[in-house]
What we know:
The protein is an alpha+beta fold. It has one domain (2-147): Alpha-D-Glucose-1,6-Bisphosphate, Chain A, domain 4 (2-Layer Sandwich), CATH 3.30.530.20. Helices cover 25% and strands 53% of the residues. The chain is built from three helices and seven strands; from the N terminus they run βααββββββα. The chain has a seven-stranded antiparallel sheet with strand order 1-7-6-5-4-3-2. α1 (13-20) packs across α3. The radius of gyration is 15 Å and the shape is globular.
Amino acid sequence: MKLSHSSTVSAPAERVWSVVMNVPTAARCVPGVAAVDPLGPDKYKGSLLVQIGPVRLVLDGEIVIVSRDDGTHKAAFRADAKDTRLGGTVRATIDVALKDVASGCEMRIDGDVQIAGRIGEFGQPVIQRKSDQLLAQFAQCLGRTATG
């Protein structure tokens, strides 16, 4: 499943970039993230609690910074997680790009997400709506964090 989201963040790209690339700090802007801890250079483990419809998932996994370009404010991440209670896995590659605009910066997030097991039964439209909601809240928090 392909995901794409674009938001305007009310802070300059350079400041938002410094927050995004500090994964534990950026993770605090994702609604439902319980904890993110370093495992090594550019590798982190974490937990995400998310409710999709009437079902609550606890996704435990790892996120890795695959590439980053500080000059162009572009990065690629890989995330692998599983929910042991419901049964299912999520594997995603996520590209983040920032560019300055008059009102702050534009953040574009493109993802390729593979969902296996019972989690996939929710269907693409439901998962798309939930991801758009989470990413919009993430962008608002990034703006507050970068300017605060």
